[in-house]
Amino acid sequence: MNASEQFLKDNKIVPFISFKDGQSHRIRIYKDKLDTITDKNGVLIDGVSYLVMEGGTAKKFFTKSISLISKLASFVGKETDVLIQMKSVKDAGGYKSVYDVKAVTPETEQMAEEPPNIGEDFGEGEIPVIEDEPNTENSQAAEEIPF
User: Fold this and answer.
1) Is residue 63 part of a domain?
2) CA trace torsion 80, 66, 54, 101 (10° rounding)
3) Count of domains in the chain?
4) Which of 11, 18, 114, 134 has most Cβ atoms within 10 angstroms of its Cβ?
5) What range does the domain containing 20 cover?
């Protein structure tokens, strides 16, 4: 284990997922909770935080999107993998973000192989990306991860 991984583990820091990369993320949702974060301008944002597994690694993300929250509500705590992809759609005022959410089936497995669809600026207040490779040898049970 390198020093960076050891630091994250010792300080119980769980990496974030960002959907701004336009790629499809295959996750399993273990927990959700109502949460409030502060954006870079000091504005409080209400939403939901999720604790998930992606590629054998525990990660988390926050969203204020009512659409995404309602789509994910039925998957929390289930033994179902979900594919989530953020897409940019042209709107009357420019571009807006939409989320494509699907339960993993043999048909949706192919969705994960599609090239990313990266659009214009997605706005303020999103959690920054912490890129990392899946690390199955250091995986923890969801109950052991601070959330």
Assistant:
1) yes
2) 60
3) 1
4) 18
5) 14-118
Instruction: State pLDDT tens for residues 35-83.
Output: 999 989 999 999 999 999 999 888 999 999 999 999 999 999 888 899 9
* Kind of pairing between the strands at 57-63 and 44-54: antiparallel
pLDDT at 77: 87
DSSP output for the chain: --HHHHHHHHTTPPPB--GGG---EEEEEEEEEEEEEE-TTS-EEEEEEEEEEETTEEEEEEE--HHHHHHHGGGTTSS--EEEEEEEEEETTEEEEEEEEEE--TTGGGGGGSPP---S---S-PPPP------GGG---GGGS--
Which range of 29-33, 92-96, 106-110, 126-130 scores highest in mean pLDDT? It is 29-33
